[in-house]
């Protein structure tokens, strides 16, 4: 009766260890899968709600040429906006800046540099936000 006792003494702990190891590997695998899924979800969320505006979205913002009607200052570069310089007017809050300055800012932050008004329309109510900026073209009346 020596053999079965040795068998029990060796095989049982071995299979027990194997079982524990298998469960452990299973848990590690599950944890890795969950973490990867979370990372993918976070990455796609970041892509969807990326903080800055895309080039195509920037191009939709109206660009005007500054006149000499008032003393403007670009809040991005803190220099005055001279007559003839291209400015971009934010459609919701009507703040205006040098176009290159605010483009650089908006590429990283989709909010007005002055009042923090978001330039990304809320996804549920995109239809409610209509651009009301009318550009007065100079060559309409020939
Ligand atoms: Zn500027
Ligand atoms: Zn603003």
TrEMBL record:
Entry keyword set: Membrane, Metal-binding, Transmembrane, Transmembrane helix, Zinc, Zinc-finger
One GO CC term on file: membrane
Location within or outside the cell: Membrane
Keyword Metal-binding included in the entry's annotation: yes
An example Gene Ontology molecular-function term: zinc ion binding
Coiled-coil features, chain-numbered ranges: none
Predominant location: membrane
InterPro entries, alphabetized: Znf_RING, Znf_RING/FYVE/PHD
Membrane-spanning residues: 6-30
Chain ranges of the RING-type domain: 74-116
Pfam family, one: zf-RING_2
Entry protein name: RING-type domain-containing protein
Protein species of origin: Aristolochia fimbriata (White veined hardy Dutchman's pipe vine)
């Amino acid at each position: 009766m020596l053999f079965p006792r040795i068998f029990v003494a060796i095989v049982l702990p071995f299979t027990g260890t194997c079982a524990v190891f298998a469960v452990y590997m299973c848990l590690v695998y599950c944890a890795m899968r969950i973490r990867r899924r979370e990372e993918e979800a976070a990455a796609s969320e970041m892509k969807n709600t990326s903080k800055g505006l895309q080039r195509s979205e920037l191009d939709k913002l109206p660009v005007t040429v500054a006149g000499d009607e008032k003393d403007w200052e670009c809040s991005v570069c803190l220099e005055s906006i001279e007559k003839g310089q291209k400015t971009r007017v934010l459609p919701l809050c009507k703040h205006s800046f040098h176009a290159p300055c605010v483009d650089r800012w908006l590429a990283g932050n989709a909010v007005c540099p002055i009042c923090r008004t978001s330039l990304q329309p809320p996804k549920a109510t995109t239809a409610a936000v209509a651009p009301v900026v009318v550009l007065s073209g100079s060559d309409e009346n020939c």
